[in-house]
Amino acid sequence: xxxxxxxxxxxxxxxxAAHLECSSAKVSRIENGQVSVRPxxxxxxxxxxxxxxxxxxxxxxxxxxxxxxxxxxWHEYADVVGPDYEFFVELEDRATSICDxxxxxxxxxxxxxxxxxxxxxxHRVTADVAARRIRFRQERQTLLRRPGSxxxxxxxxxxxxxxxxxxxGVMREQLRWLVEAGAHGEVSLQVVPAATGLHPAxxxxxxxxxFPDPExxxxxxxxxxxxxxxxxxxxxxxxxxxxxxxxxxxALSPEDSASFIESMAKE
Length: 267
Fold this sequence. Notes:
Endonuclease, Chain A; Cro/C1-type_HTH; 434 Repressor (Amino-terminal Domain); alpha/beta
């Protein structure tokens, strides 16, 4: 992450070394993970790179955890998840609000194990990697059950509920679990019926994270076919914040959404 931030800022290792008054070799070793780095040094480096506050705070947390004897749980899955996604989970762990809009799949934090397994099979993920990714996602899901869990707001397109994932039993179990999860105090679940028609956010799934400090910009996570992207500028995240508010306005209420999903589960 430090290397990517430096390159985005258009700086060389030599530029950073001159600013920190240290050797280029030290900067290189920091970027390659060969030496630990103090939070004070990280703060100085990130200030030089002009890194936004949300990403800066998360990177400082990473620096602190790297000096601890016990690493964060998600570091154990670095072999099956990409660095951007691992960084997203670091942010998600600190979030006080999660807004998840999905167009074709059930939100990951609400997926049942059989549903996950069917999704992995459809994506041609090998059995051993699929098993570890499923465990990783189940670990993520504990976020919603811990004390002081973040407020989770999900808006799901009807198409995601009707899309055949696995056999009929997989989907019925998944739909029933959505209703049960939506009854949890910190979980708000809304459905956008297909009859609603087109809207500005159509087809653009995203997850938006909010943090304890209201001055800290929200962060938006976007997935692509061959990667992912974190958007953490105030202007960029603001557009998604407005889009999610619009989605909540056109979607069914949480109560009507629960009835809608229950009816589908009986079909």
